[in-house]
Amino acid sequence: MAANEEQTMELEALRSIYEGDECFKELSPVSFQYRVGNLGDPKAFLLEISWPEMYPELPPNISLNAFFNNSISSSVKQNILAKLHEQVEANLGTAMVYTLFEWAKENQEQLMENHHPKVNAVTISVTENTVTSNTSVAKKKEKKEQLSKSQKKKLADKTDNRGELPRGWNWVDVIKVNFDFFFVKLNDLRHIIPGNSLTVF
User: Fold this and answer.
1) Helix 97-106 and helix 3-17: axis angle, to 10°?
2) 22: which residues sit within 8 A by CB, 6+ positions away?
3) pTM of the model
4) What phi, psi does 7 have (nearest 5°)?
5) What are the pLDDT digits (tens) for 60-78?
6) What are phi and psi of 192, to 5 degrees?
């Protein structure tokens, strides 16, 4: 079987296996990325594999140079690449992208055991500026709202001697009752005006 036929078959297999998997990304028909670990995991890394023209007779190109991996030290990257190349040697001549991705997933803890996330100086300075700006915003919110003279006078007219507004100052009449008849005498309920007839028992 020609190399191109084997690549086509492996490409179809990868598409069907990783369909709907958010960790897998097909960059081109011969280049793939797989995120090993969850997004929030500090030990996650992005593995990129691309095929040379004569793959699988020749080994694939494996890279950890994605921006996602910037926090990983070069020694840890070299260790991961060395262990992956051991797997490539064992599987040379066969379709191996799925095998490499799955092996990396299964051995993530071992591959990243010496990983200590780098802390960038830029991140620290941005964080300090954010804390400073948040503090100044909080101080601004603590200040009382400034009122004009007319607003103060209106407020003083509404308040009592303790500076509190009287109970119900902002209540709204919810129901207004309109009677279209009046009772003339309380003792004589038979006389109702205007002409509405009620039966009194």
Assistant:
1) 40
2) 35
3) 0.55
4) -65, -40
5) 999 988 888 888 888 888 9
6) -120, 135
